[in-house]
Amino acid sequence: MDKLSGGLSPEEEAVIERRLEEDPAFREAWEALSADARSQRTAVYVKAVEPVEGLDELKQRRKPRRPLRAWMPYAAAAAVLGAGVWFAFHFDAKEGAKTAQNAAAPLPGISLTMANGKTVNFHPDSAAQTVSLGQATLRSENGKLDYESADTTVTVLNVPAGGNYRLTLSDGTEVWLNASTRLHFPFQFGARQREVTVEGEAYFHVAKETDRPFIVHTPQADVRVLGTSFNINTYTAGSDKTALVEGSVLLQARNGRQLRLTPGQQAESSGTGLTAAPFDADDVLSWMNGIQYFHHASVPDLLTDASRFYGLPFEAADGKFDGVKVTGLMDRARLPEFLNDLAITTGGKVDYDGRTVRLH
Fold it and tell me: Which DSSP string do the residues of 224-247 spell out, in sequence order?
């Protein structure tokens, strides 16, 4: 059961594999159980699992322990089914691994586009890189950029699909940027207020300045703060989300409506107004640790998110997965496991041709 739930360490996995090779009695019992397990249809098992409870259990188990496997059914299986299904998943997963073992997410670099149109590219590894550009000195190291410059014109930081990055602004505000995100900012803020614009997803820890407010512009609203921490997500066209972790923010929608958030609330801004509700911190903030959760997602929506999250194009066969909903998580460091679990959970097959992942 621990193996099924992803709770085994690589060392423990190796012990089992070694015993299968060295102990004929153990191998015989294993094969007999797996044969029984394969008589049960995996798809039937997957449909029997309660996805919400399974994902909640997985979240709780991830917190105090080492990283787990990436898909909800592994965790839920331990609670609801017997050993036979464990073997069914074990062998199916190995079969799936044959198609997914060569898949690897690219290691994207970031770029900075200056007001004069010139673009500076930074390599994606952790090595230090210093670039002198006119009166500006830019330093990139370990996924973080800082700079020295008095320039007040707007610069654009581009983080591509599959990447994430961290930036320290001139006032000391820290910004974490998720994949496929652009941040428009000046190297130096003006004397009266600090303004940036986000397209994508970013988490802000704003340096407190009572006499110089910090304003984040999004397509659907302006977020006005003095000193606080919050997450902004504009991935969905026509709907921006602002989740407040600490402090206070005031949102003003494009139609003029205003809403003040308290910690633990998430506002959604759309063309029709503003609404607020409590949010799950794991769901909203885990992207900073390379994790993304999803709940009852359609296959097309999931593959859109996976393309952005891993930096690889994902495609699905037309119409085959209509009506299929999936719940689970993506771990940026465990792409092969995600592909295996995608095939098992949807009942499809995954192929990777070196450029595109196809589900059919």
Answer: EESS-EEEEE--STTEEEEEEEES
Which distant-in-sequence residues (6+ apart) come within 8 Å of 53 by Cβ?
A: 76, 79
Q: Tell me the CB-side half-sphere exposure of residue 319, using CA atoms within 13 A.
A: 0
What residues does 223 pair with on adjacent strands?
216, 251
Alpha helices in the chain (DSSP H): 10-22, 24-38, 42-48, 51-62, 72-80, 83-100, 281-285, 299-310, 335-346
Supply 149's token pair: 């410059």
Q: What is the pTM of this model?
A: 0.74
Beta 214-217 vs 194-199: how paired, if at all?
Answer: parallel
Q: What single string gives the DSSP state of each residue in 189-200?
A: --SS-EEEEEES
Q: Tens digit of pLDDT for each residue in 16-36?
A: 777 778 887 777 776 666 555
Spatial separation of the C-alpha atoms in residues 68 and 7, rounded to whole Å: 6
pLDDT, one tens digit per residue, over 34-60 is 555 444 444 444 444 555 666 666 666
Q: Could you tell me the CA-to-CA distances from 348 to 11, 47, 163, 292, 307 in Å, in that order?
A: 31, 14, 28, 22, 18
SS3 317: coil
Higher pLDDT, 14 or 146: 146
